[in-house]
């Protein structure tokens, strides 16, 4: 990995080819967020005020859940400062966008902006990276999980996408709340708890059945949509000693209309090079990356990436390999022998979990 470069190096090379306008904030993105808010409020009112057939409520849950997810994508962009630069407005709008996912804007900025982006795919420093065999072998729960048959693990992993963002967000709150000074901790606490108070209060107003269709099921849908992207962002890439976006990140491709609805969230390598640039400009950045470093850039259709995630384990061995501890099988990572169109494993000798019990 001697040819790795950090994201600042790539940014410096790419800036020579980009107009200055692309680095300006894009406040018009907020109109998309307003549209999603209107969809959510409208569907809430229909479900809450009318006694509809459960099938109709089920159909209404889908646009609510998709709107929750899209608001999360917009919140991500807002809190990177690409929509509005003024701090308090940025945090307020970010809190509103992340309200359905119940994520504190200041926790998000600490966890995502200041830690994940700085230490992407760096073992033990990136809060979003998956563990190494050495790390999980020290944890009883993970030792038990990785003794389960691979199919069971793969199915459970995909099913858990419906709750992973919410669960990880709660975990990050518990991890990072202590990093704020004592004067700021109450504000951060309120930011994290107030959305949950809102949604639990809605339960008592609507009753469980309507609340299930208005919030709980949409939350599961939103989690799955958001995590379908997040799980492909880095989980097929190697762990790296240098925060190199071309090595540690993957851009997935989706239909153009999906990119419009999801604020270009699919352009993830581009985002890690220019996190403070509005994602509306990422197609241009992608064009120049592919011109400058065509052999190092990773992209594939979303469906292909998800299929590869299903077929490969999520435990790292020696940074470049993904291993199944139960069978002693290793799969390469992107840039290190993994062909997502023809996934093959190799048998290797490693310290299996069972031997360490």
TrEMBL record:
Alphabetically ordered keywords of this record: Membrane, Transmembrane, Transmembrane helix
- GO BP term, example: lipid biosynthetic process
Where does it sit, as one GO cellular component term?
Answer: membrane
What sections of the protein cross the membrane? 30-50, 56-76, 150-176, 188-205, 211-230
What Gene Ontology molecular function terms does this protein carry?
A: oxidoreductase activity, acting on paired donors, with oxidation of a pair of donors resulting in the reduction of molecular oxygen to two molecules of water
Per the UniProt entry, what species is this protein from, by scientific name?
A: Terrihalobacillus insolitus
Ranges for domain Fatty acid desaturase come to: 58-300
**Protein name as catalogued:** Acyl-CoA desaturase
Key word Transmembrane helix present: yes
PANTHER family for this protein = DELTA(5) FATTY ACID DESATURASE C-RELATED (PTHR19353:SF19), FATTY ACID DESATURASE 2 (PTHR19353)
